[in-house]
Amino acid sequence: MTHSLWLRVVLTCAMALPMLIFYAVGTLGPLMIADLGVPTPWLGWLITSTFGFAALLSLWAGPLVNWLGSRRGLALLFWSTACSYSLLAALPGFAGVVLALTVCGIAQALANPVTNLLIAERVEPAFKAAVVGLKQSGVQVSALFAGALLPGLALGFGWRGALACLLLPALLLAVLGPRVAPAASARKPLSLRVARPTARLAVLMSIQLCVGVVLSSFVTFLGVFAAGQGMSATAIGGLIAGFGVMGIVARTLLTPLGARMADESWLLLVLLLLASVALWLTAQATPARHWLLWAGALGMGLTAVATNAIAMSMVLRDPGFGAPAPSAGLLSVGFFGGFALGPPLFGLVFGQSWWMPIGVVLLACGLSLVLTRVRAAPGLQVVK
């Protein structure tokens, strides 16, 4: 058992590299629209292509990871990420980008089950919550990287060239990353039967569906919305980077805090209420009030972003949610399903109303209250 630095690096990168493309779309969206010659709402379909496929695969990701083992699972994750970035650099047109992002959905579906299994195998119980928070913060590391570095790289190499720069770390991790996992053992039987969620997992999946809708809508269209308020490309990158930094802080600090609570559902409720305030502040931004964009981006990073790490920690710590890998896969179905649905739905009303994501996050608040009641009834385990 270990929680070495290299293990933490691999866990963080396993979460960061597949998700980087999501924040790249938010950061480079205006450049992609101009280069591909597509309407602004089509950005939403790029996100749907990758997360829709990831949500579908997540139905079987848990059993698949149990069958492959953590070492083979990590290898498949990093190689599929490298393949996606290769296709993104090589394939022309909007359809080529959609195909490349769809391939990345394989890695996104594997990320949480593989990393959760690796933590279960290699990290002592006392450190599990902290390591979960750290590895979940990898998603926000990708936001920091996308916001801080991609705009500059895109100015020099174009948006495709900027993303092609990610091939080297992806290939290095594909070769070296799996070595941190235990030696591959005999494969367990593969079952393609979709596990049925317990009652508490079903409610948590619903909360994460709402969070996915809100976060994907917010990040996908934040750059375009900010550009409409007269913000420069560099400043838009700063927004995404700031969002990422706050997400890292929130996930690293709040996940262990939640693990010390009797029921983390109350922490989810508070964070989601604050996220609704951050969304409202963003909606009030004007060309003369860019500070509201900063308040909204930093606020969403500090609140809504942390809820996914807390949810994953809940799944690892509470056996009432089910076995770690399958339950993480099912939780990802809800989260990725929200990511797939959010951008196209928000694209329909973009520029007219921010009430759609605000309403969805308030629905998640109500579901958090439901979760407190379900967790208080341990006899109610399976959704009928």
Average pLDDT: 85
Tally of DSSP β-strands: 0
**Name given to the CATH homologous superfamily:** MFS general substrate transporter like domains
- Helical content band: over 70%
Radius of gyration: 19 Å
Structural class: mainly alpha
CATH topology: Growth Hormone, Chain: A
The H/E string reads: HHHHHHHHHHHHH
Shape: globular
Discrete helix count: 13
Largest sheet: none
What's the architecture, going by CATH?
Up-down Bundle
For the record, the CATH class is Mainly Alpha
As a percent range, the share of strand residues is under 5%
Poorly predicted residue ranges: 380-384
Distance between the termini: 38 Å
Q: Into how many domains do the coordinates divide?
A: 1
What do you see in this structure?
The protein has 384 residues and is mainly α. It has a single domain (5-180, 193-375), classed as Up-down Bundle (Growth Hormone, Chain: A). Helix content is 80%, strand content 0%. The protein contains 13 helices and no strands. The chain has helices spanning 5-36, 42-90, 93-122, 128-148, 150-164, 167-176, 199-228, 233-259, 265-283, 291-302, 304-317, 324-349, 355-375. Helix 7 runs antiparallel to helix 13 and helix 9 runs antiparallel to helix 11. The longest helix is centred in the first third of the chain and has 49 residues, at 42-90. It is globular. The model is unreliable at 380-384 (pLDDT under 50).
